[in-house]
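4.2 Preliminary Data

To establish feasibility before requesting continued support, the project team ran the inverse folding procedure on a target of 241 residues. The structure was first converted into the token representation described in Section 3, and no sequence information of any kind was made available to the design step. The complete token record follows.
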């Protein structure tokens, strides 16, 4: 009996360890960002007993509004595809931006293995909101790309008293959480996007039938909008206006 108990604990601990964020990878990303950051300032936020990196970039105008920006699978808050162009361009649209490091796993681990980390991402969003409040500003906008949209939807659906007024979802995969989200959503995706985005277009529409502020828009580009930064940022800016 004791041996069975020990075996159970061992297996449980191994399973738990496999769903912990890859903090070493986060640390490498942080060093990379701190060494080469061109726009904005690094801000370290605290999630429980650990710190995580974020980038705060001030608006070009006198504004009280902040957009929290969430990257996709396994990357970082200054990622050149989608994230960096948006977090900088939004400062021209009347928003300060706070781009946050989300929990990541080792290279090659598929998005299906990330679900246990959504609780951790919820806590990071909450920490970002708390920091924004400490500045005397408001978290008006949530912007996310790819798997970051899943983490964003998990937070929005599970926290109905959240402060966000709008949600920009770029390359949104799946439709989980959408039936429980009521704020305006821009569901933006590319003509050459990945299959998990293109094959769930109708699913996302159906899941958002209750939401009169939901709009779906397809523009030229792949999942990372390579060579299409201008149309990406303009489309988001036009919708926000």
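Position-by-position output of the design step:
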């Amino acid at each position: 009996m004791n041996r069975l108990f020990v075996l159970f604990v061992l297996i449980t601990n191994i399973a738990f360890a496999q769903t912990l964020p890859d903090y070493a990878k986060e640390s490498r990303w942080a060093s990379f960002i701190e060494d080469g950051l061109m726009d904005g300032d690094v801000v370290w936020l605290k999630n429980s007993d650990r710190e995580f990196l974020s980038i705060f970039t001030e608006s070009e105008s006198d504004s009280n509004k902040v957009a929290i920006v969430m990257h996709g699978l396994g990357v970082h808050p200054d990622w050149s595809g989608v994230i960096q162009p948006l977090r900088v361009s939004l400062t021209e649209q009347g928003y300060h931006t706070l781009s946050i490091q989300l929990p990541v796993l080792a290279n090659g681990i598929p998005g299906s293995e990330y679900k246990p980390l959504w609780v951790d991402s919820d806590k990071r969003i909450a920490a970002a909101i708390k920091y924004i409040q400490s500045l005397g500003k408001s978290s008006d906008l949530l912007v996310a790309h790819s798997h970051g949209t899943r983490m964003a939807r998990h937070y929005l659906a599970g926290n109905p008293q959240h402060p966000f007024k709008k949600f920009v979802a770029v390359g949104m995969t799946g439709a989980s959480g959408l039936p429980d989200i009521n704020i305006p959503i821009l569901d933006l995706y590319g003509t050459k996007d990945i299959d998990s985005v293109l094959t769930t277009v109708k699913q996302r529409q159906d899941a958002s039938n209750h939401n009169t502020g939901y709009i779906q828009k397809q523009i030229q580009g792949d999942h990372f909008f390579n060579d299409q930064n201008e149309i990406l940022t303009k489309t988001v800016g036009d919708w926000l206006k």
